[in-house]
Specification:
Number of helices: 3
Largest sheet: none
Order of helices and strands: HHH
Strand content: under 5%
Number of strands: 0
Helix content: 40-55%
Radius of gyration: 18 Å
Length: 96
Amino acid sequence: MQNDVVMGTLTVRENLMFSANLRLPNSLSQKDKRQRVEETLYELGLTSCADTKVSHILTYLLTYLLTCFTYLLYTLSLPVEQRPQITDLRHYSYYT
């Protein structure tokens, strides 16, 4: 599994640009990749923090969420009878 999804030493914009350079085809120009990054920042509502450095805490949080998501995908791939049971949270006062 990939541990570092986001680099905490880069800004949000730099992380997206880094990812764009790795994942988008080389046939796209840098200008087009930058445009896609800007569109993504806008779509995600991150324009106000685009130049903020991502902290290591956020890196760990995103890695943890990715781990949970991967586990969820694995769990959903199991036959229903083999899936772990999810605790019913309605008995907690917060949910009633």
